[in-house]
Specification:
two-stranded antiparallel sheet; alpha/beta; 2 domains; about 40% helix
């Protein structure tokens, strides 16, 4: 989050939007706070002005969470009548490629999408193959990326449940 605050806290962005769904606890139930609110609070703690942050809550979905976030952003842009010519998405490490593909898909060809990949502290990205966690994350995110570019997905919420 420190990297995100450095990127978005300088005033060069018109909107800083946090997007996220419910936080699931150990028992599988969702808490009242969601990831978007958590991110917004952390950005504020790190110096991003509260007035520049918009929080978008994503409905609870069991799969396609990143795509649901992208569609939520698309709906907000459309409902707010904002002429967004470009969007930068901040995410962690190897998830960036998949996020880029899904946000491009959701927002369409009229909106330029960039991605900023924050540092994933769970493994050393320069030597990911030396740790079980690094191997797991890279393989999972690679499969997720392939899925993101080839799998048919609806163009609106709610998303069908996965089976």
């Amino acid at each position: 989050m420190r990297e995100a605050a450095e990127e978005f806290g300088g005033g060069q962005y018109t909107y800083v939007v946090t997007v996220g769904g419910p936080i699931e606890g150990d028992n599988g139930r969702t808490n009242q706070m969601n990831l978007a609110e958590l991110a917004a609070g952390r950005l504020q703690e790190l110096g991003v002005a509260e007035t520049s942050i918009t929080v978008l809550n994503v409905p609870h979905v069991t799969c396609h969470r990143t795509y649901a976030s992208a569609l939520t952003l698309k709906n907000w842009i459309n409902d707010s009548h904002i002429e967004a010519t470009g969007v930068n998405v901040f995410t962690l490490g190897a998830h960036a490629r998949k996020s880029l593909a899904l946000f491009k898909r959701a927002l369409g060809p009229g909106t330029k999408v960039g991605v900023i990949s924050g540092t994933d502290a769970e493994y050393d990205p320069a030597h990911w193959w030396l740790s079980a966690r690094g191997i797991y994350v890279i393989l999972r995110k690679t499969v997720g990326y392939v899925y993101a570019i080839v799998w048919p997905l609806p163009d609106r919420l709610p998303l069908a449940s996965c089976r």
